[in-house]
Amino acid sequence: MTEQLYLKDCYLREFDATIISADGREIELDRTAFYAASGGQPDDTGILSCNNEDYVVGSVRKDKGRIIHHVDRDGLKAGDKVHGQVDWTRRYIHMRYHTASHVLSGVIFKETGAEITGNQIAADKTRIDFDLENFDREKIKGYEQKANQILAENHPVVIKYLPREEAVKIPSVTKLAKGLPEIIRDIRIVSVEGFEQEACGGTHLKNTGEADQIEIIGAENKGKSNRRIYFRLREQDD
Predict the structure, then answer these.
(1) pTM, whole model, 2 decimals?
(2) What is the full DSSP assignment across 173-199?
(3) Is 212 found in the same domain as 98?
(4) Burial label, 29 (beta-carbon count in 10 A; 0-12, 13-18, 19+)
(5) Would 167 disulfide with which of 6, 13, 150, 162, CB 3.0-4.6 Å?
(6) Are residues 31 and 148 located together in one domain of the fold?
């Protein structure tokens, strides 16, 4: 199984690894800093270098427990030593959006009790889906303001692992943790210190202040109690 380096160090941009299998342009490494698309967060892209040749990593996916890097051409083979470089611009914007989405989701939950049912991160905006029967659009601006207050307070964002039995006792973690396969005994917890914590396998900032501010740009009713909010990151000089 590939060691997922980003789970412990989201800021890791370069790494060395060995190819454990190669099927044409589909490459599996013994360790990687490339994030594989999952949980609403897009995959990383970048470069794998070997013997003074660069291979462009165009996508990374999970396939039956394996992490597959798709490169732009043939030439790599099992046993090759490679140097990986993550496209940091792409990774960092996803980290900023992901941490901001945790904060906004936390605000919505605290204000309404609504469970978050999904999210989709992109480089220009993110959407959050949540389960709420009575959707008061007039309160949306208030959610934005409260989220921005939390972001501006520079809360540390800490990643830790808890034994499954301990993690499921945390209200915000219980539902997701119980849905994980029983083989996973230690649960990765992302904590916005002093605000909220939840189980998450994505990449995050070290501090909420790095996200700058958000702007909610849309809201939709997607069904009986399925609501959707879109937001974008608003740079301080916007």
Answers:
(1) 0.92
(2) HHHHHHHS-TT--EEEEEEETTTEEEE
(3) yes
(4) buried
(5) 162
(6) no
